[in-house]
Amino acid sequence: VSKIFSGLTNVIGRDSEKDYGYEGRVFAQAQLRETRKAAQELVDLLNDYYGGETKAQNMLMRSWQVEWKLNVEEYLEKDEEDNDETGNWDDDDNSTNDDDDDNVNEDNDNGAVDDGSNDDGSDDDSNTDDGSDDDNFKKKKRKQKNHKKNKKKHENNDDDDSNNNNYNRHLGKKKGVKRAKTIHNHPDNLTPEQIQQHKHYSKQRTTKLITTMAQALLNPLQDDFKIGTIGSSVAAGHDNCHYDSYESQLQRTLSSIFQSAGMNLIVQNAGEGGGCGDTHENQVFCITHNVSPDVDIIHYSWTYFEHGGAEKARESLIRWGQQMPKRPMVHHLVARGKANTCEGDSKENAMLDNTYAAYGYNAFCIQTGLYFGGHDYDKEQEEGINRFGWQQVGDGYHNTTRYGELEEDEERRNGLGTVYRNWHPGPLGFQIASD
Q1: Which of 79, 271, 355, 432 has the least CB density, counted as fewest CB within 10 Å?
Q2: CA angle, corner 70, sides to 321 and 343, nearest 5?
Q3: The model's pTM
Q4: For the purposes of burial, counting CB atoms within 10 Å of the CB of 19, is it exposed (0-12), middle (13-18) or buried (19 or more)?
Q5: Rounded mean pLDDT of the chain?
Q6: CA–CA distance, 374 with 396 (Å, rounded to integer)
């Protein structure tokens, strides 16, 4: 990040193309100001639309499988993993875009899903302290003691859901939905050492997001920012107009920001029906044939076809992505929110989150985002109202999309308020995904 923003400081001070010695897009101070202005306008719009800044952040940011660390003070706060042996910032630790950082393809051949990690969730006792062997031994014993204490606490409270549901990270009491017993990567279920490591993973993930955006903005030869989507009929937007798919909505929502930077936003839709013969197990290997090889971000959605072992396919996609020119992040869109899972109760998903944090991997679940707004879907369910049922209009917050509010045709306006057409999300369901 320091390398990127050192370049940013140098570049934004220039006001004309002739300073560069070549023709190309210039991201100078004027473009920076306009881009920030457009971004703030969008943030203000979303805050207002969802009922305030806190509520909007809960629904759109904190409801991701792993919360983005977008608070500046938290992001800049040092943690133990940020320092090398001499106490200096470790420039090599987060350099996921450097040419020499090929460990995802070479050093980690076993991957995340079958990496032989300790079942108890503890890490190997690798540290970078300069202290004596005696100090290291004491640290190790203290770590083991804390882990045993924490494990015993969870065993005694295993049936108490209240210990595991901070931030409402569950999908309520709906019939047939198993509530999570253990929320992986939740502070209540981690030792102090694991919490510190989790913070480091969050910072790595956010660093990848920052560098992805900064490199695109600062590249004078890049005019397009591309998001490429692969997946099943959910990704394709089946049972909806193309205009109402989440890719189309995302492109319209974010275009003003990229236009302010002198760029175009292109969101590619390579979704296909699940009956076409391909699945998540083989489509990931054709990523450069389904979307542009130079995409900046990859989106993936195979919600209804993923069963046991689906994490391996996503891991393959992450690793294949690191061989593409821009090493794009992989973001996983889940049409529902049960077992893929933004509940946080899948150990395999937690392993993916941790192992590939530096490469920006994360997931967003539509229903989890809606639950995080605080609407009592459980009470409505008991009263016979299923907001996630087929053809249901209104998600408990709004009865149509933002652009639907401007629609004069009543039938079209009501249709845009559909949360789920059937098993496929409708325009209103896709709107929160794009937001």
Answers
A1: 79
A2: 70
A3: 0.75
A4: exposed
A5: 78
A6: 10
